[in-house]
């Protein structure tokens, strides 16, 4: 059963439609990311789920409870929605210790002192910060601060955790590490989570499902591999940076039916001496365990992975795994 069901949700600011008939289901224990460019409406949708903004039309059902039912005039107050929040800037109270930051919302909810102490220990252990309980936030690294913020969100056992770009303030290494940790924790504790980001890498690391949003619409919904392997159109392919977008004639020889453009994933190109496509190396970067080569193919820049070191200007021949190639009508 869905933990959260968003049905026919719409919102306008003045005469501008910001969300247009959004329908989404989030399963219990799963992680959904709303991914899209600036202005597509993702933050507005998150704020409506949180109860910080009102929808014009539609329903949001969380388990047995209606958060929002515009037709019936239902708008559950924020504090009754049992939500946890994790923001990109951590939102910690600087003058309070780590333990007090986590305890504060429980004190506000009038939880018994003994139960608060037990719960604070539990959640700080879950995020591996128990030995930092007495420190002030300023003594912690960015990753540790974000883990305090996650512990605080978990403390009141929320039904749903809302994230707003939780990894965006961290450097690249830490982003991967904390992202994996959030994912593991969400699975271990069976958390239902919704995240908002414009960063496709963050969406890939964290999500079971990604809702790719464009102009207030859910443009494509699916697991990360579904979206990145099969973007619904060229706009999605470009936004997701899913591979090389090239004229069909460049890759296939002749245009294929009505398709004028093709998406060739970087891994679908292979260097081979007898291959049909001739290109020239422009640059070569060693990333992770292979070279990421930028080459010029028929006047188009393409990116290719290889384990060989290639020199700038070196001619290469490329074979294409046609099974991985997707065709699109040019936009
Ligand atoms: N309170 C408001 N009043 C009027 N317009 C608003 C309001 N809040 C947001 N908007 C507009 O709604 C549109 C969508 O905003 P929203 O913040 O939801 O987009 P977003 O996809 O989250 O973008 P970003 O990543 O830049 O935050 C934008 O054009 C924004 O200017």
Automatic annotation (TrEMBL):
Any matching Pfam family: ABC_tran
Membrane-spanning segments: none
Highest taxon, organism lineage: Bacteria
ABC transporter domain: residues covered: 4-240
Keyword DNA damage on entry: no
Family annotation (SUPFAM superfamilies): P-loop containing nucleoside triphosphate hydrolases (SSF52540)
Lineage: Bacteria, Pseudomonadati, Pseudomonadota, Gammaproteobacteria, Oceanospirillales
Species assigned in the record: Pokkaliibacter plantistimulans
PANTHER family xrefs: SPERMIDINE/PUTRESCINE IMPORT ATP-BINDING PROTEIN POTA (PTHR42781), SPERMIDINE_PUTRESCINE IMPORT ATP-BINDING PROTEIN POTA (PTHR42781:SF4)
Name recorded for this polypeptide: ABC transporter ATPase
Keyword terms, alphabetized: ATP-binding, Nucleotide-binding, Transport
């Amino acid at each position: 059963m869905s933990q959260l069901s968003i049905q026919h949700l719409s919102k306008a600011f003045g005469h501008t439609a910001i969300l247009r008939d959004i329908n989404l289901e989030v399963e219990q224990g799963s992680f959904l990311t709303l991914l899209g460019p600036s202005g597509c409406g993702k933050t507005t949708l998150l704020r409506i789920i949180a109860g910080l903004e009102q929808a014009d039309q539609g329903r949001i059902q969380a388990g047995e409870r209606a958060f929002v039912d515009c037709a019936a005039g239902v708008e559950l107050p924020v504090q009754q929605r049992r939500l946890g929040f994790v923001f990109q800037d951590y939102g910690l109270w600087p003058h309070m210790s780590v333990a007090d930051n986590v305890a504060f919302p429980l004190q506000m909810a009038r939880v018994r002192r003994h139960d608060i102490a037990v719960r604070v220990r539990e959640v700080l252990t879950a995020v591996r910060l128990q030995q930092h309980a007495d420190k002030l936030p300023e003594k912690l690294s960015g990753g540790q601060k974000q883990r305090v913020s996650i512990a605080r969100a978990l403390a009141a056992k929320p039904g749903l955790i809302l994230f707003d770009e939780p990894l965006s303030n961290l450097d690249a290494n830490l982003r991967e590490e904390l992202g994996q940790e959030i994912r593991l924790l969400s699975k271990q504790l069976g958390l239902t989570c919704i995240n908002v980001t414009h960063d496709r890498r963050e969406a890939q690391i964290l999500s079971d499902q990604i809702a790719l949003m464009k102009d207030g619409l859910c443009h494509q919904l699916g697991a990360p591999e579904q979206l990145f392997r099969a973007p619904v159109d060229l706009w999605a392919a470009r936004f997701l940076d899913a591979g090389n977008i090239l004229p069909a004639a460049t890759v296939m020889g002749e245009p294929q039916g009505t398709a004028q453009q093709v998406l060739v994933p970087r891994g679908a190109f292979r260097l081979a001496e007898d291959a049909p496509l001739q290109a020239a190396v422009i640059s070569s970067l060693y990333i992770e365990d292979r070279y990421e080569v930028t080459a010029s193919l028929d006047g188009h820049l393409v990116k290719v992975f290889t384990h060989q070191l290639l020199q700038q200007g070196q001619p290469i021949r490329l074979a294409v795994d046609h099974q991985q190639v997707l065709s699109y009508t040019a936009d």
